[in-house]
Amino acid sequence: xxxxxxxxxxxxxxxxxxxxxxxxxxxxxxxxxxxxxxxxxxxxxxxxxxxxxxxxxxxxxxxxxxxxxxxxxxxxxxxxxxxxxxxxxxxxxxxxxxxxxxxxxxxxxxxxxxxxxxxxxxxxxxxxxxxxxxxxxxxxxxxxxxxxxxxxxxxxxxxxxxxxxxxxxxxxxxxxxxxxxxxxxxxxxxxxxxxxxxxxxxxxxxxxxxxxxxxxxxxxxxxxxxxxxxxxxxxxxxxxxxxxxxxxxxxxxxxxxxxxxxxxxxxxxxxxxxxxxxxxxxxxxxxxxxxxxxxxxxxxxxxxxxxxxxxxxxxxxxxxxxxxxxxxxxxxxxxxxxxxxxxxxxxxxxxxxxxxxxxxxxxxxxxxxxxxxxxxxxxxxxxxxxxxxxxxxxxxxxxxxxxxxxxxxxxx
Length: 412
Ligand SMILES: Cc1ncc(COP(=O)(O)O)c(C=O)c1O
Known about the structure:
alpha/beta
């Protein structure tokens, strides 16, 4: 199966659009060069077509979002119905029924599955919706100080939790932090991922640590799977210090790693979990899901929510998320990702893999070679040297076989 490239990459239309974009968009946003980017026009399943009519195989799921396949017919149908009914409601004032249904579904998928029946009676989970991954992280960080009274947070070297200021405080990459350092609140301690370093961070904190936030598998940090005892150790240490464990599953959630959520690989139940990306297969909607006793640290609303936003619980996003989750269940994408794990090269779990290359130059070369062969992949890792592979979870064995051969060629 060879994707069909009609023109040299990028084609004339993409190049013209690049020139126009360059004039009007903030120059820091889209990287533009003679051979980058292509402009996406439409997509279906694992295929994307660009503005010049070239077809590509997408190994990114567009940053891990299109897990049930681009333009999935059932998600699109749900979106169409919702578009004709109601596109926007008043999220925290006069909401729409779909917000109720999605909150119930997210509880069922997480804490209702993770806690024993007797615990669920006391600990039903509660949801705080938002629009992006960064905002879900911010909701979790705010929950932590309300629930513990302690402002400090431990995050890990290499971690990526988003770029809005609260989330950026937790993100460890110097590249993103350095220009804004004087404006960062500074409540986060960045720790090495070892028990002694975590314990030292707890001991040395003057103001008290209320939460540990962790990506169960480092995503943008280069697809790094922790040693088997890492997450169970964090659970133990958090319990000892009466701190919350926040699992940032914005990248790893919703079947990506071969389980519904990556924490399930280690049997660890966090206090809060942040989800986004794949939840709706393409609408900007995210959530912080927590145990009810923790989430009830938020005071009952007396008419003015402490943390909300205009588009919170958007009905179109909720409709798409409910349809995407139904598709994950119907297609058993957790099992599919688990079964196909070894068909993709590199380290990782499920269909979240990283191929480590000697340096960023080698990685960029591979990404561009693949693009010229009709395959979309991304570089990752703090040093930019990891070829990151997160295809739609609907990818077939044949497409994976083709991919594996092309990756060998591109990384030679
Ligand atoms: C683990 C993790 N957390 C948070 C974020 C931030 O999400 P967003 O870009 O939607 O704000 C990302 C984005 O890649 C992520 O991978």
